[in-house]
Write a structure and sequence with these properties.
Elements (H helix, E strand, L loop, with lengths): L1 E6 L6 H12 L3 E3 H11 L2 H12 L5 H11 L10 E3 L5 H10 L1 E9 L2 H8 L2 E4 L5 E3 L19 E2 L6 H15 L2 H6 L4 E5 L4 H11 L2
Helix pairs in contact: 1-9, 2-3, 4-5, 6-7
The structure holds adenosine monophosphate.
């Protein structure tokens, strides 16, 4: 089993790219953010614990995340590897990951801080199929209708606001970016310029995965 990690700051486009390259990798997207939001919506004990950190733009404790991942990768669709989106985010999470699956590539989507706020404040997701859009940078082709499934039901994330974004960026720089050196030393770290056209980024990621 060989997995891929999509790495980068909040708003870099990890979720968007995961969906776009799913077909060519054949690996399911595993987003800890999506799993936590589902737990919050379902009101599970994990969701209740995670919500206070998520609302504050802070990282949820490693133990909670590692347990979620351990359960997720036991599922049948994960047996040939997965595409992690938003995990790992700390060195202890990366160490836990190394003990449960082999990571073949870490794809770092690089976007400068000054572009993050405008990219995050303006994004929205289809409630039916999860396709990700942005008011300015990636609008639906027909206003108010999902390109993928025609649904007219969209949602915006509670933590996609300017003040929470700044905390999420701080958490990224302090706790997550040190992972870059960790993975660089393993020779599996590929940096992709994420401040470009979405199709060009997907093309470069697929190339880096060859
Ligand atoms: P995301 O959807 O990846 O932007 O994650 C949204 C929020 O969920 C983050 O701001 C954190 O509070 C929490 N979260 C998601 N993934 C992790 C993780 N791997 N470690 C810690 N917290 C996480």
């Amino acid at each position: 089993m060989q997995s891929i990690v999509l790495f980068g700051p909040p708003g870099a486009g990890k979720g968007t790219q995961a969906q776009r390259i799913m077909e060519s990798t054949g690996l399911p997207q595993v987003s800890t953010g999506d799993m936590l939001r589902a737990a919050v919506a379902a009101g599970t004990p994990t969701g209740l614990e995670a919500k206070k950190y998520m609302d504050a733009g802070q990282l949820v404790p490693d133990e909670v995340i590692i347990n979620l991942i351990k359960d997720r990768i036991k599922e049948s669709d994960a047996q040939n590897g997965v595409m992690f989106d938003g995990f790992p985010r700390t060195i202890p999470q990366a160490e836990a990951l190394a003990s449960i699956t082999e990571v073949s590539h870490v794809i770092a989507i690089d976007v400068p801080d000054e572009r993050i706020v405008e990219r995050i404040c303006g994004r929205f997701t289809c409630n039916e199929c999860g396709s990700v859009y942005h008011d300015t940078f990636n609008p639906t082709k027909v206003a108010g209708q999902c390109d993928n499934c025609d649904s007219k039901d969209f949602k915006r994330r509670a933590d996609d606001n300017e003040s929470t974004v700044m905390s999420r960026l701080t958490a990224y720089h302090e706790q997550t970016s040190p992972l870059a050196d960790w993975y660089l030393s393993k020779g599996i770290f590929h940096v992709i310029d994420g401040d470009r056209d979405i199709d060009e980024i997907s093309k470069d990621i697929i190339e880096a995965l060859k």
